[in-house]
Design goal:
about 160 residues; mainly alpha; Four Helix Bundle (Hemerythrin (Met), subunit A); two-stranded antiparallel ribbon; 5 helices; 2 strands; about 5% strand; globular; binds fe (ii) ion
């Protein structure tokens, strides 16, 4: 099971500090989740919807100049590329899905990119650089959800 974003105290409207202060979402430039992106598999759809909230977490990290928030995001993505991708790949294999190999190739690229994010964080690379990389990663992942994952529509 993927670790839910709720683990990081996030919800749709605000991000709550441990002190109880609230940070309102910055929606500028952010791609919003749209129910049209659903493929009809509730667990997978839920994971996808969460990905669209990662930019909110990133906004929070930038606003608060808190490097440890980036670690939380990277941890979330590390779970995502294992648990979520396994779930999709199993679903496609179960249905002998035609686009399986191309889809898995894309997953493998994302998995490598997350390893790179982890390396940058652990090697203490400048925060701004990591923020940019995470933002690029989430943009690509949202694109994957809209274009590639959507082809699994109807698989159960
Ligand atoms: Fe997906
Ligand atoms: Fe996928």
């Amino acid at each position: 099971m993927i670790v839910p974003l709720a683990f990081f105290n996030i919800n749709r409207d605000s991000y709550t500090y441990s002190e109880g202060r609230k940070y309102d979402k910055l929606n500028v430039m952010s791609q919003k989740w749209n129910n049209n992106f659903e493929i009809g598999h509730s667990e997978i759809d839920h994971h996808h919807e969460e990905v669209f909230e990662v930019t909110t977490m990133l906004d929070f990290a930038i606003e608060n100049n808190d490097r440890s928030e980036l670690n939380k995001i990277i941890k979330y993505l590390e779970h995502y590329v294992v648990d979520h991708f396994n779930e999709e790949e199993s679903l496609m294999q179960k249905h002998n899905f035609n686009g399986y190999h191309d889809h898995k190739d894309e997953h493998d690229i994302f998995t490598d990119l997350v390893k790179e994010l982890r390396r940058l964080y652990d090697e203490n690379i400048h925060t701004t650089h990591i923020i940019l990389k995470i933002r690029k990663f989430t943009d690509q992942l949202m694109h994957h959800i809209i274009t590639t994952d959507s082809k699994m529509s109807g698989l159960h």
